[in-house]
Amino acid sequence: MKLKLIRDYSLKSYYMLFFTLIWLFGFITLAYTAKLPENILKNGDFDLKLDGWHHWTHESAAAIFQTEGNKAEPIVGKNAAYIKISKGGNALGHIQLYQQPFTLEKGTTYTYSLWAKSEKPRNVTMRVMHQGAPWTVYAPKSINLSEEWKEFFITFDMPVDDVNSRAGIIMGIEKVDVWLDHIRLYEGKYVSDIEGAEPHAVQPTDKLTTTWASLKNRD
C-alpha cells in the first residue's frame, strides 16, 4: 500500500512537470511570435545622439539641437532629443526635426508615434509628408505638450507610393524647449511596447492628404 502511494505521488508529480513545461513552451512561443513591428526610422531612441536625424531652423528663429541624458529622464535608452529654443520664429515650421528619405507604400496602414514633453505647456505638430514639391502632407496632427512625458500616435493609410517620405516634428513660434524620445514609424495599427504607457491617440486632419501650400499659414 505504501509503495502504491509513493508510485501514485511520483506519477502525479511527473504529469504536473510535463504540463508545466508545455505551458512554459507555449508562453515562450507566443512571446516570440508576437514580436514588435520593425521601426522604419533609424535611431528613434537617440542612442547614437542625432545620427540619422536632420534639423532646420529659419533665419527668424534660433534653436540648438542636441541630446540630453539622465536629466531628461529618457523614456528608452540613455538619451532623448533636446531642442533648446531661444527664438521661436514667425511660424510653426520655422524649427524642424525630421528624418528622410524612406519608402511608404500605397494602401498600407502605418502608425507614427513619439514621446514628447516641453519646458511648459505648448503646441507642436507631428507629421508624415513627401520631401519635395508639392510637399504633400499625409498625416499632420497638432499635439499639446506638457512638462510630463506623454506618448502620441497617428494611424493612417498611405494614399500613394512615395520613395521620398519624411517624418518629423515642427515646433516654431513659441520660445519653449522641447524633448523627444522613442520615435517610431511602422506598418499596422498602434502597438504599445512600454508597460504602463497611456498613449494619446490623435487623428489626422479631416482631409488626410494636403499640401505645404495649404499649411503655410500655420507652418
Strand segment count = 11
Task: Give the helices and strands as they follow along the chain.
Answer: HEEEEEEEEEEEH
Taking the alpha carbons of the first and last residues, their distance comes to 87 Å
| Shape field | globular
Helix content: 10-25%
**At the first level of CATH, what is the class of the largest domain?**
Mainly Beta
CATH-defined architecture of the largest domain = Sandwich
Radius of gyration: 23 Å
Described by strand count, sense and barrel closure, the largest sheet is:
6 strands, mixed
In total, the number of domains comes to 2
* Low-pLDDT sequence parts: 2-6, 17-33, 205-219
Number of helices in the DSSP assignment: 2
Descriptive account of the structure:
This protein has 219 residues and is of the alpha+beta class. It folds into two domains: 1-35; 54-215, Jelly Rolls, CATH 2.60.120. The protein contains two helices and eleven strands; from the N terminus they run H-E-E-E-E-E-E-E-E-E-E-E-H. It has a six-stranded mixed sheet with strand order 2-3-10-5-8-11, with no helix packed on it. A five-stranded antiparallel sheet has the order 1-4-9-6-7, with no helix packed on it. A hairpin with a 6-residue loop joins strand 6 (122-130) and strand 7. The chain is globular and about 40 Å long. The N and C termini lie far apart (87 Å). Mean pLDDT is 84; it is low at 2-6, 17-33 and 205-219.
List keywords for this structure.
219 residues, Jelly Rolls, 2 domains, six-stranded mixed sheet, five-stranded antiparallel sheet
